[in-house]
């Protein structure tokens, strides 16, 4: 396999700081929300509004990247993430000091996350399409594996770095990660606009959401989003209420779980997808299976050892499945639709965060184990769908890299 272009590592660096910022938000908000007087449903609504904005704007940014080029879209996304983190941390600071309370605090937190959803949603479609531009069919899984590994590494480093910085200031981690995002932005500005990055005239019809080349991957993406939201939005509460109910700082224990999940994701992305060259369809199938087993284990976990193993397994499955989805949908469409296809994928992942306050959080209040059992059922039925769908069967074949893609797709549609 030929060497992957170095620009992928720079894009991965941008996603590193995006992941670091996101992980700190997800870990600190649930327990802190109770001290700030916010209910579980109100806490979930902070993430739901951001996810809704992300879902609505991600396809737009993807389509725009096909028209204007990848670089400008990625830069807009990175700046949006930085502004969102700064505003979010400022609101938390005002809330903890009593300056901003009640519905006013909730409104500012939602607004800050909405900026992340509207502008930050440009990062992934632009970066994913850029990777597709600079990789061939044989490199696609490895390229997306390296790109997504940056986000996973950020999820590991975010809580670890924040743990040290929180001693100095509660808001310092948010500002540090914002500076990192702006640094990557400056580095991208120095990159030349290559021919691969520029938009060519599209000789084929427009790519639609229900296109046979697209929707099978989006179905699995929605399932992943639902399970991811259930874990992200409830796990800090789960540690507090079930695993370590009597310790003074449950966030520290939850942080270890998130770090192990992110470490598992990196193994799935850099080792399984990149080095072992596993086909996208196999990544999707095995990733779905691992996520299902992990969620079942979490639902029955009562000890730190079991839940930490379950979080690692969840991350491993998530890393392999998400990389397979990104590479699979990229290979299924032509070069003229890379941005829009990545935008579609970015659109469906946040669906879980939209419905989590309505489903996962009420289920958690009924029983802390129910959200994870629901996730297991979602992954189980997803696995049945993967095994029966033609597009997933085609993309799983070991010889998929050597066939004419358009011919293979036409065969699937007939």
UniProtKB/TrEMBL annotation:
<feature type="transmembrane region" description="Helical">
    <location>
        <begin position="72"/>
        <end position="92"/>
    </location>
</feature>
<feature type="transmembrane region" description="Helical">
    <location>
        <begin position="307"/>
        <end position="331"/>
    </location>
</feature>
<dbReference type="InterPro" id="IPR011701">
    <property type="entry name" value="MFS"/>
</dbReference>
<dbReference type="InterPro" id="IPR020846">
    <property type="entry name" value="MFS_dom"/>
</dbReference>
<dbReference type="Pfam" id="PF07690">
    <property type="entry name" value="MFS_1"/>
</dbReference>
<protein>
    <recommendedName>
        <fullName>Major facilitator superfamily (MFS) profile domain-containing protein</fullName>
    </recommendedName>
</protein>
<feature type="transmembrane region" description="Helical">
    <location>
        <begin position="7"/>
        <end position="29"/>
    </location>
</feature>
<feature type="transmembrane region" description="Helical">
    <location>
        <begin position="41"/>
        <end position="60"/>
    </location>
</feature>
<feature type="transmembrane region" description="Helical">
    <location>
        <begin position="283"/>
        <end position="301"/>
    </location>
</feature>
<feature type="transmembrane region" description="Helical">
    <location>
        <begin position="214"/>
        <end position="239"/>
    </location>
</feature>
<dbReference type="InterPro" id="IPR036259">
    <property type="entry name" value="MFS_trans_sf"/>
</dbReference>
<feature type="transmembrane region" description="Helical">
    <location>
        <begin position="370"/>
        <end position="388"/>
    </location>
</feature>
<keyword id="KW-0812">Transmembrane</keyword>
<feature type="domain" description="Major facilitator superfamily (MFS) profile">
    <location>
        <begin position="7"/>
        <end position="393"/>
    </location>
</feature>
<keyword id="KW-1133">Transmembrane helix</keyword>
<feature type="transmembrane region" description="Helical">
    <location>
        <begin position="251"/>
        <end position="271"/>
    </location>
</feature>
<keyword id="KW-0472">Membrane</keyword>
<feature type="transmembrane region" description="Helical">
    <location>
        <begin position="343"/>
        <end position="364"/>
    </location>
</feature>
<dbReference type="GO" id="GO:0022857">
    <property type="term" value="F:transmembrane transporter activity"/>
</dbReference>
């Amino acid at each position: 396999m030929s060497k992957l272009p170095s620009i992928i590592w720079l894009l991965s660096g941008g996603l590193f700081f995006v992941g670091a910022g996101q992980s700190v938000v997800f870990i600190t908000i649930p327990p802190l929300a109770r001290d700030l007087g916010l209910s579980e449903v109100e806490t979930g609504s902070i993430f739901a509004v951001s996810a809704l904005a992300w879902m609505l704007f991600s396809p737009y940014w993807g389509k725009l990247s096909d028209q204007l080029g990848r670089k400008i879209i990625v830069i807009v996304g990175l700046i949006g993430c930085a502004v969102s983190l700064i505003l979010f941390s400022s609101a938390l600071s005002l809330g903890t000091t009593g300056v901003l309370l009640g519905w006013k605090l909730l409104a500012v937190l939602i607004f800050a996350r909405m900026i992340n959803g509207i502008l930050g949603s440009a990062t992934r479609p632009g970066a994913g399409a850029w990777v597709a531009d600079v990789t061939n069919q044989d490199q696609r899984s490895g390229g997306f594996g390296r790109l997504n590994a940056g986000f996973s590494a950020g999820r590991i480093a975010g809580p670890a770095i924040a743990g040290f910085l929180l001693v100095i200031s509660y808001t310092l981690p948010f500002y540090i990660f914002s500076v990192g995002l702006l640094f990557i932005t400056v580095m991208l500005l120095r990159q030349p606009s290559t021919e691969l990055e520029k938009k060519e005239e599209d000789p084929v019809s427009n790519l639609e959401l229900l296109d046979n080349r697209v929707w099978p991957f989006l179905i699995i993406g929605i399932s992943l989003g639902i399970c991811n939201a259930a874990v992200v939005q409830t796990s800090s509460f789960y540690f507090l209420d079930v695993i370590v109910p009597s310790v003074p700082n449950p966030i520290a224990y939850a942080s270890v779980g998130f770090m192990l999940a992110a470490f598992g994701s990196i193994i799935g992305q850099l080792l399984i997808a990149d080095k072992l060259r596993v086909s996208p369809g196999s990544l999707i199938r095995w990733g779905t299976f691992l996520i299902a087993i992990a969620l079942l284990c979490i639902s029955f976990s009562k000890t730190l050892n079991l839940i930490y193993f379950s979080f690692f397994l969840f991350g491993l499955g998530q890393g392999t499945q998400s990389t397979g989805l990104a590479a699979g949908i990229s290979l299924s469409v032509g070069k003229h639709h890379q941005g829009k296809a990545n935008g579609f994928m970015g659109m469906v992942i946040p669906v879980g965060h939209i419905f989590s306050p309505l489903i996962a959080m009420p289920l958690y209040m009924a029983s802390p184990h129910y959200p994870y059992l629901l996730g297991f059922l979602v992954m189980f039925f997803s696995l049945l769908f993967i095994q029966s769908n033609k597009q997933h069967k085609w993309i799983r074949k070991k010889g998929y890299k050597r066939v004419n893609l358009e011919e293979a797709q036409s065969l699937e549609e007939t």
